[in-house]
Amino acid sequence: MNGWVYAYYVLLVACFIISLFHLEHREVKILSVLLGVSIITEVIVELIGTEGLGFFIVYHFFVVLEYSLITIILRSGIRDYRWRLLMGVSIFVFCFVSLFYSFVMGGWHAFPGINITIESFLVICWCLLSFFSITPDSEASIFRHPVFWLTLAFFIYFAASVSVNAFYNLLLENDTTRARHFFAVLNSLSNYLLYIMLIKGVVCFRSNRISL
Amino acid sequence: MLPVKQDLFVAVIFISLLVTIMGLVVVAAVISYKKKQDAYLHQLKLMKEDYDKQLMWSQIEMQEEAFAHLGQELHDDIGQLLSSTKLLINVTQRSMKEIPDTLQIAEETLTTAIQHLRALSKSFSRQWLDQFSLIENLKAEVERINSSRAIEVKFTHEMMVLPLQAEPQIILFRIIQEAMQNCIKHARPQVIDISIRKAAQELILIIADDGSGFDKAGMSSIGMGIRNMQHRTNLLGGDIRWEVTTAGGTAVLITLPLE
Q: How many domains does chain A have?
């Protein structure tokens, strides 16, 4: 681990703590569960990783949980019944497909790259839907809307993940050190953006309550 | 397979492209939100206007109801008392050989008071509201004020019947009453001139006086009466403004659209 990683772990914990103060909002409640699960996963990965054991197994379950929770958060900002139904159904379908692939085809000890890519594409789709479904309920600008910041956070993170994953293997074949460095920088950057925007989103829930 | 540097270059280009696309998506989302917000705020404004109108109509209906009740009370209670008093004076006069001047004047004053009270009570009645004619009522009002001989009210009109429903006519009548009351109370005029005319698709109403005028700069701190007049005129979809006349008096100019 290096300084880059520690810094975004601090942001992750900070975001989790801030969310605990705003649990009266359903979206924040789910987000806090997601952040809690992320922290536990990171701790487990660090512990298993230092002992030299295969820690990829944790990600197989984390992906499923992460997708379910993010979809529930994004679903709360969408009013159209059909889209909401589709998102709800997608959670079960994705969980089934992802676990089936991990169990039967990919194996538990392999990195769940396919699962993460499918998850990313689905989340990007829901983010696009969420962006254009934000409904104004006051004179406040979109930048004071918590759903906007939550959506933007997930959108940037998953779009960056997909693009980095797409190039990672290609770069890895040519220059492993450079590829890993490139990946670490972009991964850290997207994580920083993710947690900063999530914090902003949670804070917007509070300011919305005050303005009302 | 591409060389390493070229791979990195492609990766950077791809990521730049991705960032641009993401930026465009966010901009499109912001524009879409802004459009929806404009529509929402417009809708909100229309709803507020509609709510204000309904509230104003309810207030006016309640006020007219109260007036009708007051008119009934004036007629049935005070009117009856005054009539009884007049009857008693008449009986007393008949029993006297010589009627004193003071009693004669008292009897005449009482007769005038009964007439005024009847006119006032009539102007508050429900029947009067249902068959309301602004021109006719304004004539009666002018006559009532003129009979006091304290000031002279002139009334000129081009039409005998206004192209308005009864309710807008009542509201307009109340605005004119308020304007005249303000004028008598604050400006102490000798003459009040009321004119109603039709120009194109508008009804123009002017209430001008030769009183002491008003401070136009001080209009920002307006009282309830003027606010009510503005509110009522807005309710009719019209416009009201106050001007200082060349003689130094006040002119209230009301413009109402006619359909």
A: 1
Q: Are A139 and B41 within 8 A, CB to CB?
A: yes
Does 3.30.565.10 match the CATH number of domain B151-259?
yes
Are residues B29 and A142, on separate chains, in Cβ contact within 8 Å? yes
Structure tokens belonging to residue A187:
């991964």
In a domain, A212, yes or no: no
Q: Are A136 and B30 in contact (CB < 8 Å)?
A: no
Span B179-228, pLDDT tens digits: 888 888 887 888 999 999 988 888 999 999 888 777 766 665 566 778 88
Burial class of residue B228 (count of CB atoms within 10 Å of its CB; 0-12, 13-18, 19+): middle
Residue with tokens 């917000």: B37
Could you tell me if B199 lies within 8 Å of chain A, comparing CB atoms? no
Nearest residue on chain B to A151, alpha-carbon basis: B26
Q: What is the pTM of this model?
A: 0.65
The whole-angstrom separation of Cα A77 and Cα A87 is 12
Q: Where in chain B is the domain with CATH 3.30.565.10?
A: 151-259
User: Is any Cβ of chain B less than 8 angstroms from the Cβ of A167?
Assistant: yes
Cβ contact B34–A142 (<8 Å): yes
Asked whether residue A82 is domain-assigned, the answer is: yes
CA atoms within 13 Å, Cβ hemisphere of A166: 15
| pLDDT for residue B222 | 62
Could you tell me the residue range of the domain that residue A88 belongs to?
A: 3-207
**Domain annotation covers residue A77:** yes
